[in-house]
Design goal:
single chain, alpha+beta, Enolase-like, domain 1, four-stranded antiparallel beta sheet
């Protein structure tokens, strides 16, 4: 591990100033410390933000939900409002990691976590995300766990967060605080596709701090859930996953939110699937037809072609679980 300085801050203004000077924010540290130990990351300065007052879960005036960036994954998953209003978030969080990690890791840190691509974590391998311009060893290496959506010639690594898939489906917003003040950005714009700059993963400006994730109010009643398909049941990253939220009224689907994980370089929203569901009555044939649209634009690699069919099946299964049939 490379030498670094450590500063603990007590208010957001102090944190932003330290971040603007080049410090890296750390709270639970469940990802960053691992990467530092493996010499993938070697920040010169760490800014401990764990003491900041960003630990509340509140219902907004319009009936949405705001989750403070420093709320732990375990706290968010267990919160009565999260479980009642948006069970898809609770389920995604509970399927994300071991209980020990969920007790330490924060919501803000979870959406900031970096890929689990083995080539990214192997400092002897070519990786444009770790060392721009060095190449992508995964393109012609063993790429079974890699992305089939949103890829580029520079990077095919998947985004690992389960919670981020739920936030993407629900069209959340990320609240940020920086030297220029506060702003909020749609979740769809917060995590960046690799393109030619895979080392730039979030739409953050220098010194900006995540303060909260806000989920908008959606029509009630809202049924939602998260399905994660993986090689083993215990503590494993997704091969595919699906976050689904449906609002039914008068026997018809009036609102549909669908996103998938484990297959994209970022959590992948499925607007074609959503559009196909609107105004329709739940049925086995509807779930099948809608799920068939989930695989549009996929670009499988040598070892992950199975993900195309697995993605379709995962979406169909979760639509059936959440929506049922009538």
């Amino acid at each position: 591990m490379h030498p670094f300085t450590y500063t603990r801050v007590s208010d957001t203004g102090e944190a932003v100033n330290a971040g603007h000077r080049g410090g890296r924010y750390i709270a639970g540290g469940t990802t960053l410390v691992d990467l530092m130990r493996e010499t993938v990351e070697h920040p010169e300065s760490l800014v401990d933000i764990s003491g900041l007052p960003l630990r509340e879960v509140t219902v907004t005036e319009r009936g949405g939900l705001r989750i403070g960036a420093l709320v732990t994954m375990a706290e968010a998953a267990a919160h009565p409002k999260v479980r009642t209003l948006y069970p898809v978030i609770s389920e995604a969080l509970e399927l994300s990691a071991s209980a020990q990690l969920r007790n330490m890791a924060t919501v803000g840190g979870n959406i900031m976590q970096r890929t689990r691509c083995t080539y990214f974590r192997d400092v002897t391998a070519a990786c444009n995300k770790r060392e721009p311009g060095s190449g992508c060893a995964a393109l012609h290496g063993f790429n079974r766990s890699h992305a089939i959506l949103g890829t580029s010639e520079s990077c095919v690594a998947t985004h690992p967060s389960d919670a981020a898939v739920a936030f993407a489906a629900l069209e959340a917003q990320v609240h940020l605080l920086g030297p220029g003040g506060g702003r909020r950005i749609p979740f769809a714009d917060f995590l960046l596709r690799p393109g030619n700059t895979p080392d730039r993963e979030q739409a953050l400006r220098r010194g900006e701090l995540i303060t909260a994730v806000e989920i908008p109010a959606l029509p009630r009643p809202l049924k939602s859930g998260y399905l994660k398909v993986r090689d083993r049941q215990s503590y494993e990253f997704a091969l595919t996953s699906a976050a689904v939220a449906l609002h039914l009224r008068g026997g018809l689907i009036r609102e549909a939110k669908v996103a998938v994980g484990g297959v994209g370089t970022v959590p992948w929203k499925l607007p074609a699937v959503e559009q196909h569901l609107l105004g329709e009555r739940p049925s086995e044939s509807l779930w099948e037809a809608a799920a068939a649209k989930a695989t549009a634009g996929t670009r499988p690699l040598e070892h992950n072609r199975f993900k195309v069919e697995l993605l379709r099946r995962t979406v169909e299964r979760q639509l059936r679980i959440v929506g049922g049939t009538k």
